[in-house]
Amino acid sequence: MAQVKQMPRTSILEGCCPGLAGKVPYAAEREAKRWAAIFKALSDPTRLQILSLVARNPGGVCECNIVDCTPLSQPTISYHIKMLTEAGLLDVEKHGLWCFYRLRKDVLAQMGAALSGLGR
Questions:
Q1: How far apart, in whole angstroms, are the C-alpha atoms of residue 104 and residue 39?
Q2: Which residue of 6, 38, 92, 102 has the lowest C-beta tally within 10 Å?
Q3: What whole-number distance in Å separates Cα of residue 51 and Cα of residue 42?
Q4: Rg, C-alpha atoms of the chain
Q5: Is residue 70 classed exposed, middle or buried when 0-12, 13-18 and 19+ CB atoms within 10 A define those classes?
Q6: Nearest one of 37, 36, 62 to 50, comparing CA atoms
Q7: Would you write out the chain's pLDDT as a tens digit for each of its 120 residues?
């Protein structure tokens, strides 16, 4: 079993981790909530499949085509699309009764930049 090295403290007010600055700024907290919503939307295999289908069709994909490409019902697909749209991963454009969806590549690029910046 590994030995835990005790760090000397000069007073109880010093705390356990000297050098850390107070609370997380509000902007950083808000940004963390935004990314959590996006990653939650990405955590479902069906939603990842929908994103993949939309990404392969840059001109947009009608919801009826998404339903045709999956074994799931239209209401289930609508729910998953709603989750992706609310997370900001899809743009929607209405044409009469039909909705066409496009991938938000800018959000994916921002995700990559945010993830690569975590270790800095």
A1: 14
A2: 6
A3: 9
A4: 22
A5: middle
A6: 62
A7: 566 666 565 555 555 655 655 565 666 778 888 888 999 999 999 999 999 999 999 888 999 999 999 999 999 999 999 999 999 999 999 988 889 999 998 888 888 887 777 666
- 80 and 66 in contact (C-beta within 8 Å)? no
- For 48, counting Cβ atoms within 10 Å of its Cβ (0-12 exposed, 13-18 middle, 19+ buried), the class is middle
Listed residue (36, 63, 38, 56) closest to 103, CA to CA: 56
Note the pTM of the prediction, 2 decimals: 0.73
Q: HSE on the CB side for 84, CA within 13 Å?
A: 30
Sign of CA dihedral 35, 70, 58, 78: negative
DSSP string, 3-45: PPPPPP-S-GGG-SSTT--SSPPHHHHHHHHHHHHHHHHHTSH
Token pair in block for residue 110: 């921002």
Q: Name all domains of the chain by residue range, CATH numbers in brackets.
A: 27-116 (1.10.10.10)
